[in-house]
Amino acid sequence: MNSFEKNPENNKPTTIKDVHTVEYDEDSKSFYVLWYGDMGCSAGSGTLSGFVSEVAVYGGEWKPYTIQSDNAFGSDLDLNFRFVESIKKINSNKFEIISWDYADDKHGGRDGGNNFPANKFKYVVERVKWSPWKISQKTLIKQNK
What we know:
The protein has 145 residues and is mainly β. It has strands at 19-24, 28-37, 49-58, 66-69, 84-91, 94-101, 119-126, 134-143. The strands form two sheets. Strands 1-2-3-4 form a four-stranded antiparallel sheet, with no helix packed on it. The chain has a four-stranded antiparallel sheet with strand order 5-6-7-8, with no helix packed on it. The model has no long low-confidence stretch (mean pLDDT 87).
């Protein structure tokens, strides 16, 4: 299952609204794409996840577009991509991400099981040109108690 299917199981098909231009020059183009799927085809209730892949072409139009990474923002962010609801580009080096995460000592809340985390956050992630992405703001916007 993935969100590129005509009728995905999660009812969240990937659309053009899920594609964000990061770089667009004559010889290089880079896009971040939000999509959902079961990467390892494990078919478990906890294996469906959100992904942000970088798709790019470098060196001219005659070269193919390729997937550069399925962790476009890096793997070091303290952000649960499994439950990403939306991504909004502020500029090429700053994005707003809405995602859920499990209850913890700092924010509290009550999880409803493996597939139902307690806390919904708005994250602002930024980078300085090509340095790694960092969370510059994390705001709790909804909580299950």
